[in-house]
Please model this.
Amino acid sequence: MRVEREKRATIAESEGQKQAKINIAAGEKAEMIAVSEGEKQKRINEAEGKAAEIERVATATAIGIREIASAINEEGGTDAVNLRIAEQYLHEFGKLASENNTLIIPTDLTDISSIIATATSVFKNTKKQVSERKTK
Model:
């Protein structure tokens, strides 16, 4: 009888250890799934945030471009564009002169008006092409 009790006790202990291992494995599996789901949701949230940011920047850029186009078509708009081109030219030329030790300059540096006239003609041609596309 004693042998039988020891046998049952060994079996019961073995079953307990088996069940404990099963429970630990199930817990580890559930933990890995929860971590994975959390990481997945984090990535989804980050992607949605980046997409919303890109969309807002694109919308703001489009609104800004429409405002600029509208302002250019108002009285004095072309003059404002010419002034802005001249400002940018001088600014970039100044940066180029300060950053490089080799400098390529126009043959007639004093004739900024011809450079602006060239930029303006490019602007006018572009404006003309855009208006032609709209009429087609």
Notes: The chain has two domains: 1-74, 76-136.
